[in-house]
Design goal:
Blueprint: H1 8-20, E1 25-30, H2 37-47, E2 52-58, H3 60-65, H4 77-85, E3 92-96, H5 102-108, E4 112-116, H6 127-132, E5 136-140, H7 148-159
């Protein structure tokens, strides 16, 4: 799976080749500190929007700059990247040190930019870059009650004798 984790400059070349073959590139980004069902559903849906999915992962330095809370990130960036690369829906993973992915998006030039439903479309960093090339920006609804922050709180409550909350609902296959 490590072969799916790329350096910024190497990925830029790979994507240029794939784009030249007519493939549509989907990009998303995040910290992905404790991978959970919300992440996997989100990434699977994002992958369906194009021919390949690139995930930008905030480095440890970047996560700390975002003030995600004490002790974050919990999982080191190289491990977070490798776990994401192990997912079948993820084609490439790239780490970035900046607090936001603007420069990375400008360099990689994705056809579709995806963020979670907690982002207003006009607040999505890189939106102007993608739309200026004729690309699209999409949001994907979040799984209610599931987040890394809520997982951390659940773990802390369990350690201190509190009761854990219920698991998220399972997906249904209603046709």
């Amino acid at each position: 799976m490590r072969k799916k984790v790329k350096l910024h400059a190497d990925l830029k070349k790979i994507l240029a080749d794939r784009r030249a073959k007519g493939e549509k590139i989907v990009f998303t980004n995040g910290c992905f500190d404790l991978l959970h069902i919300g992440h996997t559903r989100y990434l699977q849906t994002a992958r369906e929007l194009g021919d390949l999915l690139v995930v930008g992962v905030n480095s440890d330095v970047s996560v700390r700059a975002l003030n995600k809370g004490g002790g974050r990130p919990i999982v080191p960036d190289a491990q977070r990247a490798e776990v994401l690369a192990a997912l079948a829906c993820v084609d490439y993973v790239v780490l970035f040190d900046e607090p936001d992915p603007g420069r990375l998006i400008a360099d990689l030039q994705p056809d579709t930019l995806v963020k979670g439903g907690d982002w207003a479309p006009d607040q999505i960093i890189g939106r102007e870059i993608v739309e200026a090339r004729g690309g699209t920006v999409r949001t994907i609804p979040l799984v209610p009650g599931v987040s890394t922050t809520s997982l951390v709180q659940k773990i802390q409550a369990t350690k201190t004798g509190g009761s854990p909350t219920e698991a998220p609902p399972a997906p249904t296959n209603k046709s």
